[in-house]
Write a structure and sequence with these properties.
With 72 residues, the protein is mainly alpha-helical. The protein contains one helix and no strands. It is rod-shaped, with a radius of gyration of 31 Å.
């Protein structure tokens, strides 16, 4: 009987540790998903800014070519 109680106590302890680990992993997963979402948003903003800069540079090049042709 004492062995059975000891085994049940050991199983109960292992279950508690597993539940704690599950909770910890769930929290870490939530945190990682939030970080991933934030990084995806930052990436989208950077891509948009890069596209705006590219458009401005292309417009400047077109104006310079136009000025060059007018002076020739």
């Amino acid at each position: 009987m004492a062995t059975l109680d000891h085994n049940l106590s050991a199983i109960d302890e292992r279950i508690d540790r597993l539940l704690g680990l599950c909770r910890s992993l769930q929290e870490e997963n939530r945190s990682l998903r939030a970080s991933q979402e934030q990084l995806a948003n930052e990436r989208a903003q950077l891509l948009a800014r890069n596209e705006q800069a590219r458009s401005r540079v292309e417009a400047m090049i077109a104006r310079l070519k136009s000025l060059e042709q007018n002076q020739a």
